[in-house]
Each structure stands twice: as C-alpha cells, then as structure tokens.
Amino acid sequence: MTRRRLTIALHWAVFLLLILLISGGTGSPVLSWAFVVAALIFSGSGLVFGLMTGAGPMLSGTARSAHPWMHRAMYVASAATALVVAADRLEQAPPWPEPSLALMLLLSIASLHAIFHLWRHTALGDGALRLMTPRALHGIL
Fold it and tell me: How far apart are CA 138 and CA 9, in angstroms?
C-alpha cells in the first residue's frame, strides 16, 4: 500500500470512528481502541513523514502561510484526543478534558478543516478535495 493510500484510508477511518464514538459508541472498547490506533498511526505518520498536501498555487496570503500549521494542528489534535480516549480506557484519565469533550472538540476542529477545504475546492477551484478523497469519488467532485 502506498503512503498516499494509507493516509487516505486512515484519514477517513479516523473521521468515521470519531463520528461513531460521538454518536454513542464511547462505551465500546473496540471502537475506542480502533480510534486510538488509527488516530495515532495517522498523526504519527503525518508528523514523522511530513504533510502530503501543499498550499496549492491558488492559495495566497495569510491562508497560504497558515495552511501547513493548520494541518499540523489537526495531527496534534487527533493524537491528543486519541491519548485522552486511551487514558480513559485504561482508567488513567486526567481530570480534564473528558473523552466526550475531547471528541467534540476534535469534531469541531475537523469541521472547520472540512469547510476550509470545501472553500478551497469550490471558490479557488484548486481541486483540494481530490487530495484526500478516494479516486472512485473523483468523478463527483
């Protein structure tokens, strides 16, 4: 499996598991540990091997400068949330934040992340969504 395919698979797996955990799956150890493993591998690969996305030629100014840092923040937020969920599963949870709050914070950050890329894809027309969507879905973008 190529790094690109692995990154795309982990990206969507973390998102799906996040949604499942928020929608009532926090009691499931299987979902919790799957989220922890996927998020830590995803974040670790991004932090070790670097970002797979660039700012693109259409992005300029502050957005261009902030682009790599916003993505790094996403990786850190994913890893931090995974650590909170893991600590809770091991009954070693710190007093703050609660896993449910950490998951909601990550979903909020992920929503802003998605809106940013939707804006890039539609307003700038730079094909930003093609970077992280499976090729089978490129026809509808």
Answer: 15
- Judged by phi (left if over 0) then psi (alpha if -120 to 50, else beta), residue 50 lies in left
Q: Considering the chain, what percentage of its residues have pLDDT values greater than 70?
A: 99
How many angstroms separate the CA atoms of 130 and 141, rounded?
A: 8
The token duo for 63 is: 């957005």
The CA distances from residue 74 to 1, 34, 81, 110, 121, in Å, are 23, 18, 10, 7, 19
Distance between CA atoms of residues 3 and 14, nearest Å: 16
Question: Which helix (DSSP H) or strand (DSSP E) does residue 76 occupy?
Answer: helix 61-89
User: For the segment 43-93, what is each residue's pLDDT rounded down to a tens digit?
Assistant: 999 888 888 877 777 888 888 898 889 999 999 999 999 999 999 999 987
Average pLDDT over residues 107-128: 88
What predicted TM-score, i.e. pTM, was given to this entire model? 0.89
